[in-house]
Amino acid sequence: MSQVARVYPGEKDQPKKLVYVWQRPVRLFHWATAICISVLFLTGLYIAFPVLTTPGEAWNQFLMARVRQIHFFAAYLWLVAYLLRCVWFFLGNKYARSGMPRPWSSAWWREFFVELFSYAFVRRERSTRLGHNALAGVAYTIFPIGLGLAQILTGFALYSETDPSGLAGRLTGWMIPLLGGSFRAHMWHHLFAWGFLWFVIVHVYIVVFDSIRDRNSLVESMITGYKSLEVDATAVGKRDQEGEH
Amino acid sequence: MVLKQCDPSRTTYDVLREHGVSRRDFVKFCTMMAAAIGLPSTGVAQVVKAMETKPRLPVIWLHGLECTCCSESFIRSSHPIAQDVILNMISLDYDDTLQAAAGHHAEDIRRDIIKKYPGGYVLAVEGNAPTKDGGVYCTIGGETFESILRESAANAKAIIAWGSCASNGCVQAAKPNPTGAVPVHKIITDKPIIRVPGCPPIAEVMTGVLAYILTFDRLPELDRIGRPKMFYEHRLHDKCQRRPFFDAGKFVEEWDDEGARKGWCLYKMGCRGPTTYNSCSNFKWNCGVSWPVGSGHGCIGCSEENYWDNGPLYERLSGVPLPGVESTPQQVGTAVALTVGAAVVAHAGVAAVKLRKPASNNTSVS
C-alpha cells in the first residue's frame, strides 16, 4: 500500500476526525520559538543598525547594551527550547518525529513529489499524513533545525568572544577560526538570520493556505493540539494503523 | 647597536654587564618583563634567574614577502633598555635586514646555526612564501624563500610567525593572490608555530613573546589558532576607551560630527574593534602614545585573518563571504525576502482561481 492515499481535498460533507497531534511540549516549543526568533531578529537588526540616538550624556545611557542583553537573553531561552524539543523528538508521540527526511526511502521521495506537485497545482493528489509531510519535513529540517543550529553555534561563538575561555567559548569558539575570523563569523550570523524571515513568510502562508484548502484546522491545532481531517475516513484509519514515520 | 654573530654560550646577564648595564637596571628590566608577560611579582625572580643562567637563544630571523614593518616595530620597543636587552637576550645570528654580513658570508652563518644548534634555535619568520611558479616571486641568494624556510625550519626548536604575513598571509595573499602567497603554517606543519599577527605586531607584544620563551624555555599558552593568549585573547572592543559610548548607544555618524569631536564609538564608521583580537587597547602604540581608535580612526583589523578582503574598511557590514556576492547580508536578506513574498502572493492568486474549481474537474494521475 502506498504511503500516499488518493485524497481530493475541498470536497464537502466528508466525515471529520479529530486527532490529538501536537502534544503540549511541541506547542510550547513552537510558540517559544515564534517569540524568541522575533525578538532575536528585531534586536539583531538593531545591533547591526543602531538607528536610535540617545539624548544626554553617556553616563546615564545604556541603550545598546540593553538591546544586546535582550538579544542574549532570548538566545539562551531559545537554546533551552531547542534542546528540550530535541529531547522531545525521542520522548514524544509519533508526530513529534514526523517529517524526518528519509532520503533512502522511495516512498518518502514519492510523498515529497506528491506534495510538491500538489502545491504547484500540477496534481490534486495529497498525502494524508497527520504530522509533517515529506516536503514540510525538509523545510523544517533546513530552516528552524539546521539554520537554528547554525545560529546557535555562530551566535554563542560570537557571544563567547568576551570570555573565550568560558563554557560557551570552549563549546562553540571553534566556529570563529572555521569561518575565517570573527568578522566573517558575524557576516554568516547576519545572513543566517534572514533565513528565518524567508522561512516565516512561507511558513505562515502555507499554514493558512493548507487550513483553507484542507480544512484541517491547522492553525488552531498549534493551540489546541487537535487536528481535524476532512478526508476519506478509511484512508486515515489505514494510515494510522500503519503508523506515522 | 652591535649585531655581529655572538657567542650564544654567554648569558643575557653577561652580555648586559659587558654593555655597562648595572645590576639595578637589570633587575628593573626583569620586573618590567615579568609584568609584560603577565607574571605576578613573585615571578620576577624566575625572570632574573633565567637571564642569569640560561645561554642566549640563537635566533634566525628570515624575511620573505613582507614590508619589514615587523622589524621596524620590533626595534622601537618602548622601554629604552628593552630594545637593547631583547636584542642581546637573543643571539640574533641571522637577520638579513639588520646583519652586517652580506652575500655568501651571510648565508653561511644561517647554515652554520642550523648545523651547530639542531633543535636549539628559534626560527623567526617575517613575511611569507609565494608558492606559484616554483616560488620564483621571492628569492634570496638564488634560492626560493620557500626552500630557505623549509631548510631553516627542519632543525628549529620552534617557529615564530611575525606579523600578519607569516600568520595569515596578509595583503599579498589577498584575492586573487597572484603569487600564491601562503602563511608559514601552510608550509611547515611539523613544528610548533606561534602566530603573532598584526601589521605590524605591537613592539611590546613581540618582545613579550621572546621574553616568555627565554624565561620559561617553552612557548606561551596559545589559543585555538596558535596566538599567545596573553596578548590575543581579547578583542580591542572589550577594553576600548570608547566602549562606554558603545554601550550607551552613542555613535559617530560622520567624521566631522559632534560625536567625532566628543570621542564617541566608531562602530558605525566601520571600526573593526569588535572583531579584532589584539592588544592595541592595552599597550597602545609608539611607547603608549596613542592607537588608531584613540586617534579617532576606526580599527582596520590588521591582525585578523582575511582583513584585506573584508573591505570596505569604513563600512561595518561588508559583503557576504560567498564567491560572486558583493551585497551585504541585509541586502541579500531583503532581496530574497521580497522575492519569497512575491512568490507567496503569486501562489495565493493562482490558488484563489484553482481552488474554486470543482474537484471533479481534475482527476489524479497515479
Can you put this structure into words, describing what you see?
The complex is a heterodimer of chains A (245) and B (366). Chain A is mainly alpha-helical. Chain A has nine helices and two strands. Chain A has one domain (16-50, 60-242): Up-down Bundle (Fumarate Reductase Cytochrome B subunit). Chain A is 62% helix and 4% strand. A two-stranded antiparallel sheet of chain A has the order 1-2. Chain B has 366 residues and is α/β, with parallel strands linked by helices. Chain B has three domains: 12-232, NADH:ubiquinone oxidoreductase-like, 20kDa subunit (Rossmann fold, 3-Layer(aba) Sandwich); 236-309, Cytochrome-c3 Hydrogenase, Chain A, domain 2 (Irregular), CATH 4.10.480.10; 331-358. Helices cover 38% and strands 10% of the residues of chain B. A five-stranded parallel β-sheet of chain B has the order 2-1-3-7-9, with helices on both faces. Chain B has a two-stranded antiparallel sheet with strand order 4-8. A two-stranded antiparallel sheet of chain B has the order 5-6. Chain B is globular and about 100 Å long. Chain B starts with 11 loop residues before the first helix and ends in a 12-residue tail after the last helix. The model of chain B is unreliable at 1-6 and 360-366 (pLDDT under 50). Classes of the chains: A mainly alpha (245), B alpha/beta (366). The interface between A and B is large, with 55 and 58 residues.
